[in-house]
Write a structure and sequence with these properties.
Largest sheet: none
Order of helices and strands: HHHHHHHHHHHHHHHHHHHH
Structural class: mainly alpha
Distance between the termini: 64 Å
Strand content: under 5%
Oligomer: single chain
Shape: globular
Number of strands: 0
């Protein structure tokens, strides 16, 4: 390791230690939390501009910035109606401690993210042409489109999508991979994405739709991306998100009023309520960590791992649900660093931040197709892994890798079968 590189590393570690010392000696107060909230917002904005040279990763940075913007304004700098009307753990200490986990998380990502100019062409995947796998995937997607929704009468919002609808994004990814880049197949995929998004919107969903829109941007639309277009799409997405939020209050399209939605957005300073509710769930994680013993925390973590690799669905492995049912009520979700603070304290926050920044730094530069597809899934699932559960960071990637190698086996079998038939026809001609 060169001296310059070593000195930079020592400086970065020193900044983390300084922040830890600050946490140890500066008591949490309303004023300190406002200053720290401003730092979270500033660091999130810096990270967004750091990723300008890597447009695909810039989508992740924009989403994280907007979520953190909503949290900071909704719960700290403005508050009032922008915050959530739940107060069980909304104390100065718990909310201040929750904010400090977020501050450490964004600081580590900023410090260790390696800013490099990465051209879109370097991130492009070498698409395979397989008629059978592409249209086989299309048939499965049509089945999910029709049968992957709980079609109940709409009056109030409840989750309507099934797990197969949520995980259909993996089939979209692999269908794109085996499309061969053929124009008509891209049109078919784009149409299916549009229908999935439209149906999800109709039933009041937003996160699954957002994932599919991100997928469209990093696959079909990738060569037309620019930083300005990302900001433009972000603004359009915020308006669409608010329209769906207004629609699911009554589920009556004729009651939708675009001007009223825009006025509400302006009055609410463009704060997105989902991150604010997820942040309250994070605060319940922090509050519970103050009273739960270490053995229970470890059991929760190993049950979480069991849910990833063994399909264990025990309550204790679902941290947010476990806390809501046994300690502090929440609405679900939880910003990613609070899960790891609950399990391992400050070391846990540091660890998950480093893991995420390693994915950001390494996977975009790897040459193998499955590495690039893994990175793609990391990008498009950011709404779920950042705001809901780290399960959504690991499980989709694990499933994708399994499906990738299964698809690859079928691709080889189909290719050899076609090649054999062509050879036999040539022999007959001769």
């Amino acid at each position: 390791m060169k001296f310059g590189t070593l000195s930079i590393l020592i400086t970065k570690i020193s900044l983390i230690l300084i922040l830890y010392l600050y946490y140890s000696y500066v008591d949490i107060s309303i004023q300190s939390s406002k200053i720290e909230a401003g730092c979270v917002l500033l660091l999130s904005l810096i990270f967004l501009f750091q990723t300008k040279s890597n447009l695909i990763l810039c989508l992740v940075a924009f989403f994280i910035f907007y979520c953190n913007y909503s949290i900071v304004l909704g719960e700290y700098l403005i508050g009032g109606n922008l915050g959530i009307p739940v107060y069980e753990v909304k104390t100065t200490y718990i909310y201040g401690l929750t904010l400090r986990t977020l501050l450490l998380f964004v600081l580590v990502i900023n410090l260790f993210y390696k800013k490099k100019d990465i051209k879109i062409t370097n991130l492009e995947i070498k698409l395979k042409d397989n008629f059978v796998l592409f249209y086989g995937g299309t048939i499965i997607l049509l089945y999910i489109l029709i049968f992957g929704i709980n079609r109940t009468e709409l009056s109030t919002y409840s989750v309507s999508i099934t797990p197969m609808y949520e995980y259909s994004i993996l089939i979209f990814v692999l269908s794109y991979y085996y499309s061969g880049g053929i124009y008509i197949r891209k049109v078919v995929l784009s149409l299916l994405m549009f229908l999935f998004v439209l149906q999800d919107f109709y039933y009041g969903g937003r996160i699954t739709s957002l994932q599919l829109i991100l997928l469209f941007l990093v696959t079909i639309f990738v060569n037309k991306l620019s930083f300005k277009k990302i900001l433009m799409f972000g603004l359009v997405g915020i308006i669409l998100n608010s329209l769906v939020g207004a629609y699911r209050n009554s589920f009556e399209l004729d009651r939708l009023n675009l001007l009223s939605v825009l006025s509400d957005l302006k009055d609410n300073m463009f704060v997105f309520d989902t991150p604010v509710y997820a942040y309250y769930a994070s605060a319940t994680h922090i509050a519970a960590s103050e009273i739960i013993d270490s053995d229970t925390k470890l059991r929760s973590f190993f049950a979480f791992l069991g849910s990833v690799f063994l399909g264990d669905d025990s309550e204790i492995g679902n941290l947010t649900l476990f806390i809501s049912n046994n300690y502090f009520l929440n609405i679900g979700g939880g910003v990613i660093p609070s899960h790891f603070y609950f399990w391992f304290g400050w070391i846990g926050v540091l660890a998950i931040a480093i893991i995420i920044v390693i994915i950001m730094n390494k996977f975009a530069k790897l040459e193998k197709d499955y590495h690039k597809l893994t990175f793609l899934i990391f990008i498009v699932t950011v709404p779920r892994w950042y705001l809901y559960s780290p399960l959504n960071l690991i499980k989709p990637i694990l499933f994708l890798l399994i499906m990738f190698f299964v698809y690859k086996v079928f691709h080889i079998i189909i290719y050899r079968s076609v090649k054999k038939r062509i050879y036999m026809y040539d022999m007959k001609d001769n």
